Amino acid sequence: MKNILHIDSSVRRTDNETASYNSISKGLGRYFVDLWMNKNHQDVLTYRDLCLNPPNFICQDWIAAAFTSEAERTSSQKSILAQSDSYFEEVTKADLVVITSPMYNYGMPAILKAWFDQIMRVNKTFSFDLARGDFPIEPVLSGKSVVLLTSCGEFGFGAGGVREQMNHLGPHIKELSKYLGASCFYEIGSEYQEFSDDRHEMSVEKAKQAILELVERL
């Protein structure tokens, strides 16, 4: 039995009367999870829609609490870190983390970045030791798989693409996924949404086929 953590971050829903208003990234996420759970009935799924329950943005008091040892934290500091602790527990338990994200202004949505900020904790998701020289930070967690499912309005954001240098979504999350414990990282996405043409339809179908193949492989 495995624990699956599914994180959605699009502000769009998937039940709009006008289909074109629906979130594509959430649709891909649901497709992945449905395929997975149909194949692995015994697995346990934890789901968070960050749009419905947004993470808090970190602040100076949050930083002070995070860098205070657990034994010395005040009740107020423990309260400030309660949401972070909850997110960390979910990530710790997960064997597979599925993250869906649209590309907003060439990067991830603010609520997804806030979720990552809440999870990035010294002595929890990373250790810090100046004895390591110029690279004092190392991940603590390991052994997990992270799947990122994305949707983009434009195209050509992949390696060698015409907009590769503008892509601050996939590469950023791939780097951060190390601190979720990712030993394996997979990214599948659709493009051309703003063009609403055959290329977009083909891109979505191609993404679904890639998801099907990935579920069979994992």
Summary keywords:
218 residues; alpha/beta; 5-stranded parallel sheet; two-stranded antiparallel ribbon; globular
Summarize, please.
This protein is an alpha/beta fold. Helices cover 36% and strands 19% of the residues. The protein has helices at residues 24-39, 60-66, 75-80, 82-93, 110-119, 170-177, 198-217, and strands spanning 3-8, 44-49, 96-102, 126-128, 137-139, 144-151, 182-190.
Q: Report the span from N to C terminus.
A: 14 Å
Q: Please state the average pLDDT score.
A: 95
Order of helices and strands: EHEHHHEHEEEHEH
Largest sheet: 5 strands, parallel
Number of helices: 7
Oligomeric state of this protein: single chain
- Could you say which structural class the secondary elements and strand pairing correspond to? alpha/beta
Computed over alpha carbons, the radius of gyration is: 18 Å
The shape is globular
Enzyme class: oxidoreductase
Protein name: FMN dependent NADH:quinone oxidoreductase
Function: Quinone reductase that provides resistance to thiol-specific stress caused by electrophilic quinones. Also exhibits azoreductase activity. Catalyzes the reductive cleavage of the azo bond in aromatic azo compounds to the corresponding amines.
Cofactor: FMN
Write a structural description:
With 218 residues, the protein is of the alpha/beta class. Helices cover 36% and strands 19% of the residues. It contains 7 helices and 7 strands. It has a 5-stranded parallel β-sheet with strand order 2-1-3-6-7, with helices on both faces. Helix 1 links the parallel strand 1 and strand 2 (44-49). Helix 1 (24-39) runs parallel beside helix 7. It is globular and about 60 Å long. The two termini are 14 Å apart. 32% of the residues are buried.
